[in-house]
Amino acid sequence: EVQLVESGGVLVKPGGSLRLSCTASGFTFSNAWMSWVRQAPGKGLEWVGRIKSRTDGGTTDYAAPVKGRFTISRDDSKNTLYLQMNSLKTEDTAVYHCTTEAKSGTSFWINYWGQGTLVTVSS
Amino acid sequence: SYELTQPPSVSVSPGQTARITCSGDALPKKYVYWYQQKSGQAPVLVMYEDSKRPSGIPERFSGSSSGTMATLTISGAQVEDEADYYCYSTDSSKGVFGGGTKLTVL
């Protein structure tokens, strides 16, 4: 059974930094493309970014609102995904979900979700 | 930036057919995926590659796509289908969600 467990969400002041972690189990983490999706309170889903598997280059992609402020990384030896968030803004307040991405040809989609961890950015 | 547009809400009575649309300029060239999110829960994939149903998803769920519009259809909607539904596709190397549609079944 695939399990994704996020941690690290807290209350942080605007301009601050925070690192989220996601511990994965039930699949071969090193082969997986992993991503983060967030959901602001009462709002819709927003794709944040992705990191490919090392065999696929290990490269990252980010949504425009977080590019340059957020960094996704992975430690395959620990089956753990990270989201480093810097220069946080109030609009970054959201539940952050760790997800796995499936791919087929040039298509990719989210197939498993963690329950999420809440990040609150407020003074 | 690329956008997917959904109606904010759809309402049907139990047993009726619910149709939720998703429009986007790139949809003729890209697959659409649909997620169901019930209150307080993580989303669940209910349709992939426009019209394929994952195992465990009831047969009353179906999907289609034509031109710039994709549609998720729930034939004979049940009270338990009440949820928020999101379409998802890709723009270059990035994922994009629609704004979500709240389906009310009552």
Number of alpha- plus pi-helical segments of chain B: 0
Kindly state the percentage of residues in helix of chain A: under 10%
What's the number of extended β-strand segments of chain B? 9
Largest sheet of chain B: 6 strands, mixed
Molecular shape of chain A? globular
Roughly how many Å apart are the termini of chain B? 36 Å
Helix-strand topology string of chain A:
EEEEEEEEEEE
Main interface: chain pair and counts: A-B, 22 and 24 residues
The quaternary state of the protein chains shown equals heterodimer
Mean pLDDT of chain B: 95
Estimated structural class of chain A: mainly beta
User: What ranges of chain B have pLDDT less than 50 throughout 5 or more consecutive residues?
Assistant: none
Return the average pLDDT of chain A rounded to an integer. Answer: 96
